[in-house]
């Protein structure tokens, strides 16, 4: 019979779950203060029932103008986007919005650390790619080149993170060398 | 007849409006990358009408676990909360949540800049108080002392910002000396 080893699997967790756990761990241990930003919504209608909490009855998702995570580590400003793909051979750049690229480029100009965390969900492999590398592949695309980054290119230009238990996705040590 | 000079008035704008304008100005001029975080909501029900955008039909406001604004300036992590009061003689501390105090204290531990921007709306006066000063008044309250900061204490421990046109609330120069 086929057996699957779940010891290092993500057990149905999203990358966001894994990163929230990781950031909670960092916060508890006083290693960094990094939070996921709330999903931006445009609130149109709110009801105020007596004796209970306000209920939002009509709202719409807005396009985020920044990345999903930011905070402070070791005196540095840290800013990143996290993306997962089921693709086994490349990371499709359509997952990233151009305003997020613009945002990360501004962060880097102000000496912040900006990067992308990629999960290849089918492969259970995780990579951290600094913005400066991502930007090269992005520019290749907008000048007519391929619309994805091959796994081999990612292996060459990003740092692989081996998933663990506590913390799940230990990305802070990688930042030392970014 | 009584005349009011509106030349420097905020013309019905909220402090959030004024700070968003200020941050846009900083962003356009490449001076800093600071954004307001979206309001955190717990989304319960979403409808997906065909041919139109998803509509959130039930959601609730969640307590924020951080402050409202953060970003990067000059390589530094910047984090602040903004509060306005109609009070003319003091700033009531009930406007601030204890998890926000906790958050700002962690930011300072990681060498970020954490502060409070206060608008006395009736007086049209604006102050920037670094967290280290706010913490003293907060601790006075939780050890049984007064539940507000008097205007005189604010004048002594914070820096006043004179509102202008572009940018409206020019807080970056103050950070040089915080
Ligand atoms: Mg995202
Ligand atoms: Mg607030």
TrEMBL record, chains A, B:
Its EC number is 3.1.21.10. It is an enzyme of class 3 (hydrolase). HAMAP family: RecU. Mg(2+) binds at residues 66, 68, 81, 100. CDD domains: RecU-like. The gene is recU. This is Holliday junction resolvase RecU. The keyword Nuclease applies. One of its GO terms (biological process) is DNA recombination. One of its GO terms (cellular component) is cytoplasm. Transmembrane segments: none annotated. Pfam families: RecU. GO terms for molecular function: crossover junction DNA endonuclease activity; magnesium ion binding; nucleic acid binding. InterPro entries: Resolv_RecU (IPR004612), Restrct_endonuc-II-like (IPR011335), tRNA_endonuc-like_dom_sf (IPR011856). It is found in: Cytoplasm. Binds 1 Mg(2+) ion per subunit. NCBIfam families: PRK02234.1-2 (NF002581), PRK02234.1-5 (NF002584), recU (TIGR00648).
């Amino acid at each position: 019979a086929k057996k699957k080893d779940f010891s290092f699997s993500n057990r149905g967790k999203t990358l966001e779950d894994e990163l929230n756990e990781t950031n909670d761990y960092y916060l508890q241990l006083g290693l960094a203060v990094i939070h996921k930003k709330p999903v931006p919504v445009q609130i149109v209608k709110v009801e105020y029932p007596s004796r209970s909490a306000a209920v939002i009855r009509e709202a719409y998702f807005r396009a985020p103008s920044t990345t999903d995570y930011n905070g402070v580590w070791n005196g540095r400003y840290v800013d990143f986007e996290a993306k997962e793909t089921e693709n086994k051979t490349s990371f499709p750049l359509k997952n990233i919005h151009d305003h997020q690229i613009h945002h990360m480029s501004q962060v880097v100009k102000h000496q912040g650390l900006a990067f992308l965390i990629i999960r290849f969900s089918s492969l259970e492999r995780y990579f951290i790619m600094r913005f400066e590398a991502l930007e090269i592949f992005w520019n290749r695309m907008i000048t007519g080149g391929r619309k994805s980054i091959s796994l081999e290119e990612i292996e060459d230009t990003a740092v692989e993170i081996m998933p663990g238990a506590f913390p799940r996705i230990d990305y802070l040590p990688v930042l030392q060398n970014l």
